[in-house]
Design brief:
The complex is a heterodimer of chains A (131) and B (377). With 131 residues, chain A is of the alpha/beta class. Chain A is 44% helix and 20% strand. The longest helix of chain A has 17 residues, at 2-18. Chain B has a single domain (3-376), classed as Porin (Beta Barrel), CATH 2.40.160. Chain B has helices spanning 3-14, 17-23, 140-143, 349-356; strands at residues 26-40, 46-47, 64-72, 77-88, 91-104, 109-117, 150-162, 165-183, 186-203, 209-229, 232-256, 260-271, 274-290, 293-304, 307-321, 324-336, 345-346, 365-376. The chains are: A alpha/beta (131), B mainly beta (377).
């Protein structure tokens, strides 16, 4: 039974790891930032849109930051520590999970976020997907 | 404040953020380094920015701890304070660090006033945040030249997006009175008046960040000490600045694509009416990540009228967790091109006087080993 559970857990992880990440904006948004623009928004360099980050370091967040900014969790924390302790920047506000990102981006015209592609609804528009 | 008390305070404050973050008004962060370093090869002279590196295994050059609390008074006005401890020559100093008000006039413009980090070097404002750079020991050839780290006054931060990247401009002004300067293996009082610093950085999407900077200040300091002069002991003045203007300019570049990283910085220091202080220095670093490991190598060089110092640093870092990095470094330092070349080695007053009367330093060299842990919270 334990082996079966372990196998299921592994399968589940593998499924998560293979899930696509969708970068989303409000359904009515006219802005269409490129992948490089999105990286700059989530690194606090570009404030043309309000980035909605995810609080926990989950597979979706890992894939997003690796895909758009070439950073893992440690590198991202190092980047922000350089800004936080100089007073030159603060990490973006976060929400709990995919559903909260979709809700916030769906409600705010200038918000942008990233979610597991399966969580996308018609309240938001997909800019691009990361495989 | 003792280290124990400060650690206790840090732990106490660390228990606050859960509540504070929920209110959305406080942001609490901290950083620290615990490291030891040892110098072999040169027994008569100490080495480093404050001379704590010598032939003993010492933990007080690299180690430090600080906490930062930021409170939002309004949506655009905040106050930030730091409290920390770090070594200053042979003792520990603890107390308040930077303390300032910041007003975000717009998304692109921030005005700040209070005690602020002075933007001298590329890594200036995070000098103490080892977690934000690859080394345990910043390249001393460059980072020992100006000891001013903060000033009382104001600064303006401006940034804007352009087609080639994000452009950031900073201009700062103020003064730093009654600070400490390490010279001749002792601490001396120094005043920096009319501090002015400005820098321009361009952060590109694919080619890293380019930075140019300039800083100047009027210096007031007397470096004197009692030395044996023949059979007598006399108080000998070695350096006196009374308003001499010091000028420091720099150009730098950083690159990090997640796997490969590099950093380079070239600087020039001059002090009015003191040709011996004219210094050119640079370093260039390259590194590559292998999973949780980062291997890096750095060449550093310092040239002043007395000679040249060069160094090679080989480092290996291990990302123990997303907020903790274990670092190990070996640094080989050589001086050349002059019998008085000291580089970043530090002679005391007596050695300096003896050198003036013909006793050579003998082109010192050293092997420096350092191990430590950088962390943030």
């Amino acid at each position: 039974m334990k082996k079966l559970l372990s196998a299921l857990a592994l399968l589940s992880c593998a499924t998560l790891a293979q899930a696509e990440v969708a970068v989303i904006v409000n359904a009515g948004a006219s802005a269409a930032p490129s992948q490089a623009d999105v990286a700059n928004i989530f690194l606090g360099k570009d404030k043309s849109l309000k980035g909605v980050d995810q609080a926990a370091w989950n597979p979706t967040k890992e894939k997003f930051y690796a895909g758009v900014a070439n950073k893992n969790e440690s590198q991202l924390k190092s980047y922000w520590s350089g800004l936080v302790f100089t007073g030159k920047g603060q990490p973006l506000p976060t929400v709990a999970d995919d559903a909260a990102v979709v809700a916030k981006v769906g409600a705010e015209a200038d918000a942008i976020g990233y979610v597991d592609a399966a969580a996308v609804t018609d309240k938001v528009k997909v800019l691009f997907k990361l495989p | 404040m003792s280290k124990r008390h400060l650690l206790g305070l840090a732990v106490c404050l660390a228990s606050l953020p859960a509540l504070a973050v929920e209110q959305g008004e406080y942001q609490f962060n901290g950083f620290g380094t615990v490291g030891i370093t040892h110098m072999g090869g040169e027994s008569d002279l100490d080495y480093g920015m404050q001379g704590q590196t010598n032939d003993g295994w010492r933990g007080d050059q690299l180690s430090k701890l600080a906490v930062q609390l930021r409170y939002g008074i309004t949506d655009t006005l905040s106050v930030t304070g730091q409290l920390g401890t770090k070594p200053v020559q042979d003792s520990w100093e603890a107390g308040p660090g930077n303390l300032y008000l910041a007003w975000e006039a717009s998304d692109n413009l921030t005005l700040r006033g209070g005690r602020l980090g002075t933007p001298i070097y590329m890594y200036s404002e995070t000098l103490n945040v080892g977690f934000s750079y690859p080394w345990l020991r910043l390249p001393e050839e460059v980072y020992s030249l100006v000891q001013l780290t903060s000033h009382d006054g104001g600064d303006v931060l401006y940034n804007r997006s352009t087609d080639i990247g994000t452009l950031s401009f900073q201009v700062a002004g103020g003064q730093a009175i009654d600070r400490e300067q390490y010279a001749l293996d002792e601490m001396h009082d120094i005043d920096y008046r009319d501090v002015f610093a400005a820098n321009l950085a361009l952060s590109t999407d694919n080619f890293g960040t380019f930075r140019v900077g300039y800083a100047e200040a009027d210096l007031k300091i007397t470096v004197d000490d009692t030395v044996a002069f023949g059979p007598a002991s006399v108080n000998f003045p070695f350096v006196t600045y009374d308003g001499n203007k010091g000028k420091f300019s720099s150009i730098g570049h950083q690159y990090d694509d997640g796997t490969w990283l590099s950093a380079a910085e070239a600087v020039k220091l001059s002090i009015e009416n003191n040709e011996e202080a004219a210094t050119n220095a640079f370093y260039i670093m390259g590194g590559r990540r292998f999973g949780d490991y980062l291997a890096h190598v750095t060449y550093g060089q310092l040239d002043d009228p007395s000679g040249r110092q060069v160094s090679m640093t080989y480092g290996l870092n291990y990302s123990f967790s997303p907020t903790v990095t274990l670092k190990g470094e070996y640094k080989r330092v050589d001086t050349s091109q002059g019998e008085d070349a000291l580089g970043v080695f530090q002679g005391n007053a007596q050695q300096t006087l003896n050198n003036a009367f013909g006793q050579s330093y003998g082109t010192p060299d050293a092997d420096i080993f350092s191990v430590g842990v950088d962390f943030i919270f």
